[in-house]
Amino acid sequence: MKHKLNIITLALLANTSFAVMANGYGLANANTNSVKLDKWVCKGCVVETGTTGSVTVGVGYNSEDDIKSANAFKSANEFAGKLDANINYKGENGYQSKVDITDLGMDNARADINVGKLGTYNLNVNYRSIATYKSNTALTPYQGIGGNDLTLPDNWVTAGSSSQMPMLYSSLNPFELSLERERAGLGFEYQAESMFTGFVNYQREDKTGTKQTSGSFFNQSMMLAEPVDYTTDTLEAGIKLKGDNWFTSLNYNGSSFKNQNNQLSYDNAFNPTFGAQTRGYMSLDPDNEAHTISLMGQYNDSVSVVSGRLMLGKMSQDQDFVTSGYGYQLPADSLDASVDLTGMNIKAVSRVNRKVRLNGSYDYNDRKNNTQVEEWTQISINDVTGKVAYNTPYDHTSHRAKLGADYRISHGLKLDAGYDFKRDERSYQDRETTDENTVWARIRVNNFDKWDMWFKGSYGQRDGSDYQASEWTSKEQNQLLRKYYLADRNRSQIEARVSYVPMDALTIDFGARYALDDYKNTEIGLTESKDTSYDANVSYMFNDDVMLNAFYNHQTIDSAQSGSSNFTTATWQADIEDKVDVVGAGLSYNNLMDSRLQLGLDYTYSNSDSTTQVRQGITGDYGDYFAKVHNLNAYALYKATEKMDLRFDYKMENYLDNDAANDIAPDGIWNVVGFGSNSHDYTAHMIMLSMSYKL
Questions:
Q1: CB-based contacts of 14, cutoff 8 Å, min separation 6
Q2: Alpha-carbon distances, residue 667 vs 145, 164, 298, 494, 520 (angstroms)
Q3: How far apart are CA 376 and CA 374, in angstroms?
Q4: Would the pTM of this model clear 0.90, i.e. be above it?
Q5: Cα–Cα distance for residue pair 682/689, rounded to 1 Å
Q6: What confidence tens digit (pLDDT) does each residue in 214-230 have?
Q7: Model confidence over 33-71: pLDDT tens digits?
Q8: Buried b (16+ CB within 10 A) or exposed e, 429-441
């Protein structure tokens, strides 16, 4: 008797424990003499070797006039080139490599290269560049921008006010406010056949550019360009031991920050008054270090998962003080700052039965400032008091605890609920301890055909120790003032999300959130805040080739504030309304020209608006702020050959804002030399042609 054979039959034959004798008709009696076993190959079990992926090169033209558009286009250059790559190589015996490159050559780019053997070791090389642009229309009479010594022209004539400076406007020159970061790293990971794993990663980041700051003499000040030339070195290393259902690891993280400029010196643009000083000096960000060691672990069985972490760290800073232009005796040559960090957390999740799951966590973090307290001669901006001041060693300890439960009521109906606790302990603050207790519940329903929805509600209260102004914070503070992050507060919040799929081609998703913060015991300060937001998303496939996606997001924050003009009870109120609207759509058309051409269009519009009205007997408009942005990207992708694609992109950004803080003339304020108008109103265009080749 002959039986028809398949893969399962052969597998059973290979294991005699599954052979069944049945009067000569058992599997062991099957006639396999004519079977060619070498032809029975599991195609799904074969690991393909070789190289796969694609490489893309592109070149673009940027018509920007306002450098802020480079934040959207990823390049501040008129002509920009880029390289993208996604390459995977798999060799025999587990050797493999992977190359991921995005926008290399642009101002915002990344590259990540991994080489190693699966389950044994991995070598990683990475690179990242990040650029942020604020303005290229800032104006200043100072020379030496980008350095740490700012000087006025030789023919500069000082005056008592900025509007009286005869050489101000003729001496103004534009400069750029921007920051660029370049980060490069090297890492190695080793995994032994046993339970041991180890890794080490090194990274260096260089940050350069200029940012806005100010220098002052008495009650007069000048806007200045602060040089940025930072280097940060970071080292991470760790070892890990693992078993069948547990692991533990010991990790180290260290960073060293270096600033190539320890001070900024500048000329006085005004008539010398306070101390007859003609030169000013300010210290810049000091060199510092931070080191942490952490021990982590996790245990997992079929019912529960428990994980935890213990962390110890230290931050230090011991750079010499800047004493240029300072005529008083210092109690020390440097601050010799030292801060100890301690952290601990533990999390647990346990399944009680098929319907109930419990979870809980506790986080502890402590920041202990051990810096020596010294006596300092106090100088304020408007007087020499001669009084002694002390540096304040602020400490902070936080506790976070959460308890939660999941209960599956029935198929498609689930209830979550929990309790969250927060405690913050602060030294030398108006309130040394704050406690916040929150309870919440959420129900999810997905047992209706084509519907999936959940609803969540929460209520929280914050209170704490007695609130009192302190000489460590501000003696000039109104005794009735309550800082919003320390004040008593009741928070009520509801959230909901609904998804509906009426047909296979259409998906509709909607969400909403409302939160009310009531600062019930505040007379001076923030008294109430309402946060309302909702969003809608629609996806519709007209046919196999045409698809539309659209979305709309809205958020409104209404805040109420009370203040005092006579340093006692509230005499004025302010209503602030902040609104943000974002709408967008994307349309794609595939498989044109015998499936060779794809067309697409993406568009977004965002509008943020802030208005403030002040009431003190009469109502006055304090001023509006808005920013409106249109972004458009139209593209065409053409499949030239089986391996080569050509793509054309057209991008446009239209931007308009009216930030009053950025729209002040150089002499718009009598005792300030400003940067001039730095508001934005532009339409920028970019075109890019790229070619992609599949390996």
A1: none
A2: 20, 9, 63, 49, 43
A3: 6
A4: no
A5: 24
A6: 998 888 999 999 999 99
A7: 555 555 555 555 566 789 999 999 999 999 878 999 999
A8: bbbbebebebebe
